[in-house]
histidine kinase (Paenibacillus allorhizoplanae), 580 residues
Amino acid sequence: MRTFLAYFQNLRFKQKLFISYMVVSIIPVVVLGMFSYHQASSFLLQQAKQNLDGAISQIAETINYRAKQHEAIINSITQNVVFKRIFISNDGDFPVLYRDYVDPFFSNILDFNQDILQISVFTENQSILRGEYILPLDLTSDLKWANQRTHSKETQWNIKNGKLFATRPFVSEEGVPLGKAPAVLFLSIDADSLFQSLDDIKTNAYGILILDKEGNQILTKNMKMSVELPISSLPSSQLRERIGSFSMQGADYMYITADMAEPGWKLVYFTPKSGISVDARSIVSATALIVLVCLAGLLLIIWIFSNTFVKRIIKLNKKMMIVENGNLKIDVSSQSRDEIGQLTNRFGNMLVNINTLIEEVYQSKITQKEAELKALQTQINPHFLYNTLSIINWKALEIDAMEISQITNTVSRFYRTVLNKGRDFIPVRNELENAKDYMHIQSIMHNYRFDFICEVDEALLRYDMINLIFQPILENALEHGIDKLRKGDGRGCITLRGYRSGEDLEFCIADNGPGMSKELAEEVIQVSSIGYGLKNVHDRIQIRFGQSYGLRIESELGHGTSVFLNFPAYTAEGYSREDA
């Protein structure tokens, strides 16, 4: 939890605002969607149960109607006076009655009722046995109904080996068998035909149980059930409700009952509760679509709100980043009167004050540096110096000392460039010539123990730069680089390269001396280190052109030192107009 809070705390304000809106909006939408899904699922499930109940009731009515038809056939035989004379009273001329009445009657029943597979009368009267229609009662000794010599007029329904049959004894009007030879009517019925309507049930997995009046099982049927349930062992007390449920073998089942009045049966339909689950794909799709539409609308509103609230903060933050990168000349203001507008205007006022102070300090430093430079320059009388060097050159020529004459001319050119008639700016071409003269003098003083290479793009020569920039850097390269090479380390070399970098000019002065540590390289620019004087050059460039310009040192112990300096590509005349 703490990790999440720390992560949330470090997020951007827009992200926090967006997440907060999303959480507050999504929770009620999702809860409402789940509630709607639950209500719709419950409604459809209840509707499915009602539809299933109606289907079961209709099937029960169909079976009841067919059973009633068979019951009518049984009544037409057992209540027939002629059949009673034959099978109960043993009265009349049996061969004639059989030929003219029994055989045609039974044949017609079989012809017009395809679902009746067999119709017979089982009797103990051996004298009237005929074909398949009148059979000895002894053949039924192994059947359950044969031992149930009831005086009831009701039909008994039984099932054995998957075959359904109905039996009814021939009795008198008072319910007492007549004569000494009882007879029983037997109808074998095609169970598939009688119960074919059960196949109209459309659920995936279900079971059917048909019970008689005593609760005895007449028919069981399992359709795609994963396990065969001992449903017959279920107490009938658990099946009293119209629609109910029971548990068996660790699973929950729902059942629906329907009574069939004519045969006195009860139809029991049961299925796993998971089997009647509603196909919720349409509900899920509709719910998901509604939720997605709501979320899309909310996302749009949240995006508009968050952008409205955060846009000005982002804009203010960008301006602060620009200021942080050194550009203090931007305008920061707002017309809004809320807290963000007040913060923006206060920052703008603070920036104006800072610019004013910076201008004052920079102008003060520029004035101070110019005064120091002018004081240095005025210490030397230019005419006296030039005249003196001219006399030395003339005397050297008189005695044919050409090397002394060359050195004198070089020194004269060097100081003429350094003094630059008191101006701060100098053409790049003249500053390079000054650097060459200085290095020539130093080469003579060092007995030509090092090489100086100058590689500057010709396109740079038309621009101007601050006077006396290269000389202090070259002096450091000699003093702290070339002069510290040990014997055997090779010949010293100093390289000055210049090239254009975008809108700026960039120069690099590199030596192959012993180099310096990274800490010292940073210190010599930031601190006025004795013996280096690079900070003065760095400050002069930044005071004149801004914080994004100045010196940069790259050095590694044992691999020499490179000093990079950059400033804008300008001409002194154009730059002065821009300053104004």
